[in-house]
Design a protein that fits this description.
The complex is a heterodimer of chains A (258) and B (212). Chain A has 258 residues and is α/β, with parallel strands linked by helices. In chain A, 39% of the residues lie in helices and 26% in strands. Chain A has one domain: TIM Barrel (Alpha-Beta Barrel), CATH 3.20.20. In chain B, a hairpin with a 2-residue loop joins strand 13 and strand 14. Classes of the chains: A alpha/beta (258), B alpha/beta (212).
Chain lengths: 258, 212
Amino acid sequence: MLKKRLIPKFLLRDGRLVKYVRFFENERAAGNPVTTAKVYNDYGVDELIVLDIVPSAASRGRVVDIIERMSEEIFMPFTVGGGVKTLDDVNMLLRAGADKVSVNSEAVRRPEFLREAARTFGDQCMTVSIDYKKISPNHASVFIDGGREHVALDPIEWAQRCEELHCGEVLLGSIDRDGTMSGYDLEMIHKAASVLSVPLIVSGGCGSLQHAIDALEAGASAVAISSMFLFTDHSPIKLRSHLFSRGLDVRASSSSRN
Amino acid sequence: MSGVAIVDYGINNVRSVKNAVEYCGFDPVVTHDADAIADASHVILPGVGAFGDAMSNIRARGIDEMLERHVREKGKPFLAVCLGMQLLANTSEEHADDGVAHRGLGWFDADVLRLIPNDPALKIPHMGWNIVAKERNHPILANIRESNLAFYFVHSFAMRCRDAGDVVGFVQYGQPVTAIIARDNIAATQFHPEKSQDTGIELMGNFLRWNP
């Protein structure tokens, strides 16, 4: 059967790997993305997500260069995004070696762009990234432009709308939990997974091996992980063997496969 | 004869296939030129995108006739990947207008049908790593352990072969899904070997060293 996926998420700023807490606080440098990607490839992670968080014309060139270098030596799927607004943007990233392109703000501003991109490049190439934040104890709302702009959309309803617009996958991230390593938003994951028919990748809050188990058991197809892999001793190898030993349906580690 | 022809029919992301061929120590050329395909030792038909568009491009560039001559008549080793594999079927119902299926190359007695999950927990596309169960051995699987047949899939349509003898391996996704087919000098995978880490590279290397 299809395996649950473990996906390191890379945030790039001017081509450098960085990490924050709740999107803006406590910036930490996290090394060279190509070197880190090679290490993760040796660890046998299932995919990589690479997001340019302060996109500009200049940073696009750096991202393309990074993806080209990764794809020369690393043979696994890459999802790449950040500032994607046009079919040319999608095309440029696919040509560089991306397999899927993530769209966030532009899908909200211009939903027909998502439909057009899916028709041009195939549904499976288009990942929609949705960032959300609690705005009251019982309500969450979508935020775009890297968490800066609040839009009046319910994250689940917006995800369902994106599915109608032919996205191939949803990357759902909690801004409140980002970088906090306090655990995923399980209630939201459970709701989203039960209504979506496309795969769901969840992001924001993973800080322990148990957090990943909780998210996968809540219905996520994949967990995106950043801080835990970068700043703790829980490596992808350790996470995979823990999940495997706990009976979750993940790929066996390469050492046990050989 | 030298080099590996990666057939260019207007799809944009063939870089990974090209990089994987280079990584295996071979010399790839991305081409739709008849002479380049004639000169190549091996031919790869990659595939991402929609079936109907792909077939239109293939016919418009005369690639169907080039492949018929060099692969089917002259027996050049040939590997088709993902949509490339589906193009070898008789028909596909992907985006079929007014219920009329698109016609494929018809090299295999097979049709491409939408994956319809029999369980709501199964998401579509079938996206991620799945384990191939072998129906039989094949040279492209040489030296890959049975316990290690995990490959990366991403597709919403799947090929159904009428001749069980064409099928080398399946994966389970609520139902058996055709993963590898082969006959004579022709092999094809629904998954992406160029995205399947060490095991995928091993399979690509096996293909590139294959002399059927």
